[in-house]
Amino acid sequence: MGHAAIASTLLDVSAAEEPAGPVSRQERKQRTRQALLDAALDLLADRSFASLSLREVAKGAGIVPTAFYRHFSSMEELGVALVEETTRTLRGLLRGARTEQRGYGGMIRASVHTLHRHVREHEDHFRFITRERYAGPGAVSRAIAVEMRMFSSDLALDLARFDPLRTWPTEDLHLLADLIVTAMLGTVAELLEIRPGDTAADERTLVAAEKRLRMILLGVPHWQP
To answer: What are the φ/ψ torsions at residue 2 (nearest 5 degrees)?
Structure first.
């Protein structure tokens, strides 16, 4: 590559990565990193993660392909970052919703409605999670599995506040939490299948989700660890 071409490339990278106004180098880097995540998510609207190329993600973010490596070491690392972006906020919201409740009924209702709001606000993220949970590249599907275990661990801690769960062994609490998380993932998949604007279908799905969780918890008083 000649000097003119190199200079042109450097200018392209600089222009793409530097927004208007005085910002720090770290802020520019963070904005470009987020642009890469957003570009990947846009491309994933109707495609699998494995079908994405680094080149098209970089193009969508407005940078040259070589600049991608300033932010991620590989496409799989970008995929893992997308998983974390999708789940971390929801984990905090669900824990907050649960800790404000004193009984099973309130906890179930608050959790289901918190999940519903977050899914509706971030549908592309959740389509990515549900599609790649089993079919994604190794690092991505493993990252999703880790996040699901963290959801279960958080829930197990919160469930231990209630009688008679206070006396349950940790292993049994985690099994119960796994059942609930699996049911919630089913609710996410159902919500994503609903046509935009179909509020009646949304409501039916939420009612069914609450019933499903109540059915799971009905057996709690009768379980002998």
So the answer is: -75, 170
From the list 125, 134, 136, the residue with the least C-alpha distance to 48 is: 136
Per-residue pLDDT reduced to its tens digit, 100-146: 877 888 889 999 999 999 999 999 999 999 999 999 899 999 999 99
- b (16+ CB within 10 A) / e for 3-26: eeeeeeeeeebeebbeeeeeeeee
The structure's pTM equals: 0.83
Rounded-to-integer distance, Cα 114 and Cα 96, Å: 10
SS3 content of the chain, % helix, strand, coil (to 5): 80, 0, 20
Domains of the chain, earliest start first:
26-72 (1.10.10.60), 74-220 (1.10.357.10)
- In the chain, the N- to C-terminal Cα span, in Å, equals 69
